[in-house]
Design goal:
274 residues; Rossmann fold; 8 helices; 8-stranded mixed sheet; alpha/beta; two-stranded antiparallel ribbon
Length: 274
């Protein structure tokens, strides 16, 4: 079975943005798989947002770690009986913690695992490579490969500044440690996309501004409140709700791919703000 199977694989599905994308995917009637460390936490989140048990029948929850190649492979193949999903969505991130380094006194925002995004990217790429090695037919044509949508952040652009002046110190000093990890993740995915034989047919990097709100897709201001931009022409702003980012990604990236259309944002690093 090829990636035309209209399924989506999720990594980091208990996080607010990725969770909202998952909810919209399931509510639209599509099948999905999600790799999580605590399956009951994800079930409780989805039920609390009003999803029915029948809707959750379309979700395969895989228990495991996103840094484990075998677990990632199970997630990629679970809803498709050994094939590949149409879309892979990853929104992994570390748990914030305060730190102090006398050499860099302003870099007080750390992570429990300061390399989680980059390591997870390496793991996902390795898992895809193993799948293709065992079934070369899945890699035969670009159209058979999944689309990758990954959640990143503003403040690490290769293009014009995408952070407003008044919060640049926050982004470029205090948040240096988590942003180094996000940048390495982006470099891995963008490097693969630029290679002669990438594992994904294309990538979409999603760069929201500072996130607000919790893990509930209903806690949204609405798509009409969102401003979007590209790396070349970014949308600068201060804050956006997690639920709004999730709704935008489903509407403009995941939903488009599931309907067999190439969205206008494929290949872009998309800045989002409200």
């Amino acid at each position: 079975m090829s990636s035309s199977s209209s399924t989506v694989a999720f990594f980091g599905a208990t996080g607010g943005v990725t969770n909202a994308i998952l909810v919209h995917t399931l509510k639209a009637g599509y099948k999905a798989s999600a790799l999580v460390r605590t399956p009951q936490k994800l079930r409780d989140q989805l039920l609390a947002q009003g999803l029915s048990s029948e809707t959750l029948d379309n979700l395969t929850i895989v228990q495991g770690n996103a840094l484990d190649v075998a677990a990632v492979r199970r997630t990629l193949s679970s809803p498709t009986a050994g094939g590949l999903p149409a879309v892979v969505v990853t929104g992994l991130g570390g748990t914030p913690r305060l730190q102090f380094n006398w050499r860099h006194p302003f870099q007080i925002a750390g992570l429990d695992n300061p390399h989680i995004c980059a390591t997870a990217a390496q793991t996902l790429l390795a898992a895809m490579g193993e799948i293709y090695a065992e079934n070369p037919a899945l890699r035969a044509t670009t159209d058979q490969k999944p689309l990758l949508a990954f959640v990143s952040t503003t403040g690490i652009t290769r293009g014009p500044e995408d952070v407003p002046f008044f919060i640049r110190f926050l982004y470029h000093q205090i948040l240096t440690v988590p942003h180094v990890d996000k940048r390495r993740m982006e470099d891995l995915y963008r490097g693969d996309a630029a290679s002669a034989d990438p594992v994904f047919r294309n990538v979409v990097g999603v760069r929201p501004t500072l996130l607000s709100g919790g893990a509930d897709y209903r806690d949204a201001a609405g798509l009409d409140k969102i401003r979007s931009g590209t790396e070349a022409k970014p949308a600068c702003g201060y804050v956006i709700k997690r639920a709004d980012v999730g709704a935008w990604v489903y509407e403009n990236v995941v939903g488009e791919a599931l309907q067999g259309r190439k969205g206008r944002w494929e290949g872009e690093m998309v800045s989002l703000t409200s």
